[in-house]
Amino acid sequence: MDPILISLIGLALAIGVPILSAAITIIICGTALAGVGTEKPELLSRLIITVVLGEALAIYGLLIAFMLLGKLPDITTMDAANMALISGIIISVATVSAGAGISYSGSSLIAATAENPETFSSNVIGVVLSEALAIYGLLIAFMVIGQI
Amino acid sequence: MKASDGNAIIADKPPTPDEKVPIITHECPSYLQAFGKLECAYGYPSSGDIDPIRVFAITFPILFGIMFADVAQGAIFVIAGIIFTLLRRNGKTTKGGDIIRYLLISGEMLIYIGISAIFFGFIFGEFFGPSGVIHPIFLFRIGPFQIGGFEPTQEPMMMLKFAILVGAIHISLGLILKFINELRHKHYKLSPIPICCIWLLFGGLFMWAYWGGISNISKWFAEGSLMFVGLVVLPLLVILVVTGLAEGFMEGIGFTVEVFAETLSHSMSYSRLMALGLVHSAMNYLFLVLGGVEHGVFPLQSIPLIAIGTILVMIIEGLVVFVHTLRLHWVEWFSKFHSGEGIPFKPFKST
Predict the structure, then answer these.
(1) How many angstroms from the chain centroid is the CA of residue B333?
(2) pLDDT digits over B222-281, tens only?
(3) CB-based burial label for B139 (10 Å; 0-12, 13-18, 19+)
């Protein structure tokens, strides 16, 4: 196969899948947030963290896609193209798993905080730890791109 | 006896040191009000703990500025902050919706984060993105860590090292505050633990920098094995012995494993400083390319595009960067010393 085609597939994965997982996360957390907002609007400023962390997943994909786009002229061999593809797969899997974590624990966090606001500081751990998963994937994808 | 007509006895006992006592919340000075709100959204400090608001008000803008490094957009923040502050001082807070009220409260905070963004914009050479108007200013170099003098988009690994260094300093600041808290609670047996955590943190960082990164990890155990024992294993052993003596050895083993994993994952978490900083300059770069800006020359037709781009970047990126700064403080920093379990003292009032 053509090296450019393979690296373009990697690029498409790197931008497409994170955006999809960010969208699903925002759909799940945003609807939960809207429900709570009608009852207790004073909690919204704290709970918005779930939606914004979901949105950040798309930004990580954007970063990797940007890096790949900049590297595209240098990709001439199959090895470099495979690395581009692999980095796209890494960030895709990492953001999908982070998105799953954020959407489940985020919507539970929103419901639990509405019930008892004092539990927020311990329950928020689940959301931010799932979000950290995406960072680990981002770091490794980043280092793989550095090898090209 | 007299107060209750002889029907009840009122005993007055001072609380024991480990008992939870409501804390007296001081009114924040108006220039720290926004930070106070952010801190209390997580929880109030426990009784006897140090109130970190003044340190928080310094570190928050610094981390924000690293991720939002831009001279021009920082200046916009400063101007907006001054306008909001003046509006609030003139007492126009009652009108307007929720968002306007939030902005008015955070007027001073916008000034601080704007100043920090301008500072890091000069260091990383960003003016509406990497447009070439300002060249990166080299400050100084500590071993492999270079402060300033490189463009983050050109040398991402340099930026990653810088981000991890900032993270290590930030975490150790939190650990020092924990040390002070342990002394204030007179837990002298546990007080060496934060010091050992700092030892472990900087030991690991030194190993990482000295042997040239994770990719040479085999060298850590071959030539660097003595150094590895001294910098990483020894602090863990000290933590194990100290907690073991204080709380039993099963607790000690669990805690030591937790400290090791936490140190690693928390310092890696600071690589988001690099990621969001790069995204910020990449998003701006997109609009610079669309507008045809080259070598610091802004053609006339690029100005509307740059304006749209700036508004978009400042709203979306600003929100994301803000939440990430908040998250770094809430999770990586507050978890060291700020329990958030304090109960604010509410005076009994007859209405």
Answers:
(1) 7
(2) 777 788 888 888 888 888 888 888 888 888 888 888 888 888 888 888 988 988 888 888
(3) exposed
Alpha helices for chain B (secondary structure H): 33-42, 53-67, 71-89, 98-105, 107-124, 156-184, 192-210, 217-221, 225-228, 234-247, 249-269, 272-291, 302-327, 334-337
Phi, psi of B138 (to 5 degrees): -80, 125
CA atoms lying within 13 Å on the CB side of residue B95: 5
Contact A135 B282 (CB under 8 A): no
Q: Which neighbouring-strand residues pair with A59?
A: none
∠ CA B255-B257-B263, rounded to 5°:
95
Query: CA distances (Å), B328 to each of A104, B64, B171, in order?
Result: 21, 10, 10
Query: What pLDDT, on the 0 to 100 scale, is given for residue B4?
Result: 65
Mean pLDDT, rounded, for A48-62? 89
Q: Does A4 touch chain B (CB under 8 A)?
A: no
Amino acid identity, position B93 = T
- Which residue of chain A has the CA closest to B281? A63
Nearest to B279 among A49, A53, A63 (CB): A63
Judge contact between A102 and A70, C-beta under 8 A. Answer: no
* Angstrom distance (rounded) from CA A37 to CA A23: 20
Smallest Cα distance from B160 to chain A, Å: 9
| pLDDT confidence of residue B96 | 61
pLDDT at A17 over 90: yes
Option in B41, B156, B320 nearest A56 (CB): B320
Question: Which residues in chain B come in under a pLDDT of 70?
Answer: 1-4, 17-18, 92-98, 213-216, 296, 351
A113 within 8 A of A40, measured Cβ to Cβ = no
Q: Is the dihedral of CA B101, B102, B108, B113 positive or negative?
A: negative
φ, ψ at A109 (rounded to 5°): -60, -40
How many pairs of residues across A and B have Cβ atoms under 8 Å apart? 69
Q: Give A83: exposed, middle or buried? Use CB within 10 Å, 0-12, 13-18, 19+.
A: buried
In sign, the C-alpha dihedral spanning B287, B290, B293, B294 is positive
Question: How do residues A64-82 score in pLDDT, each as one tens digit?
Answer: 998 888 888 888 888 889 9
* Residue with token string 């639990």: A112
